[in-house]
Amino acid sequence: MNTSNNLSRTGEFTLLLCATLTIMVGAAVAPGLIAIAKGLQFTQYPSLLITLPALGAIIFAPLFGRWIDKHGARKTLLLSLWSYCVLGLSVVLLSSEILIAANRIVLGGFAAGVMAAGTALISQWYTGEARLKMIAKQGMAIELGGVIFLFIGGILAQAHWKAAFLLYGIAAVCALLVVFSIPSNQKILTSRNRTSDHKAKDVVSSFSGIKSILSFAVCAMALFFSMVVSLPQHLEALDYSEAHIGYILSYISLVAVVAASLLPRFVKAIKEKRTLSLSFLCFGAALFVFGSFSEIQAIMLAATFAGTGFGLSIPLLNHATVEISQEENRGKNLSFFAMAVFAGQFFTSIIDFLPVNLNLVFFIFSAVAVCISIGAFSSTLFSTLLSKLDTNSD
């Protein structure tokens, strides 16, 4: 039986808008990276302006988990949003590379706070299938944010390199919306959460524990971002124009939005772990096709697989983290999930240092994805067998 949520449509929109900020950390500066790096005099390793926030999220995420469990998700979200805004806007005032790097690292920490606290609020206001649908929408919002902010960031950076940082001001808008649209009372879903405990047990039986979920999250994000990081260089070598590369990357995000919207149907039809297994199989197919073919039809097919893999994996794992957690440790577990997501992004920076060509990188990552898919599916079959044996023994 589904439970209806108590949040207004404005409150729901607010949580989804907050979710877009997690990808905006890098998307705001990515289109005008070269001009922004020159303007900040951060030219030696300009890509660090994009990757350092992920490092900050890895470092500071556990701190925000404790804040959520101690002070509540709403207070943590407001703190993270205001700090995100101030740090994002103030970087243009800095002139030292060390201070700029520190700014980006701490900014990433507050991005992790936004992600974890936002999901914690979703877990408070939604239960059961309604919660899964809302977390699926959250995944859609993150990908849509990537499409929108990459587009707007490019326009602003073209006007002036400092203008791109105005996007971080959206965090202040989110903070005001939280104040007025999300109530501060904590009498939320207490009795209804108890009635949905049996559904949480189903998810617990599907995933062996939080460590399993976090491992899958790191792998999923590493596989997905290996394509995001490598495709521009790979496609440029295949004589695709910058415009075409932008269209392909945007198409991946749009497919991810559609896949995330269909996630509840997949879970209902084939259960959690089979859906997860399918998502990694999609990653493997995408990487194999990217490494094997250069025709536009094949590239678009691979992009479809890549977007589907993301849309079916990260929102599902996010939901599993919520369901497997108890009220007293939910903040901590969600902060670890945020850390895992950003860790997967950050680990892809090693691709630039691998002494092999990108085609071989694609094939290696494809093989890894297929192995993970088989592992997830095999564990599902093993769990099913055990449950049948337990039933027969009874």
From TrEMBL:
Keywords: Cell membrane, Membrane, Transmembrane, Transmembrane helix. GO terms for cellular component: plasma membrane. GO terms for molecular function: transmembrane transporter activity. It is a multi-pass membrane protein. The chain crosses the membrane at residues 12-36, 48-65, 77-99, 105-127, 139-157, 163-182, 203-225, 245-263, 275-293, 299-322, 334-354, 360-386. Its main location: membrane. This is Major facilitator superfamily (MFS) profile domain-containing protein.
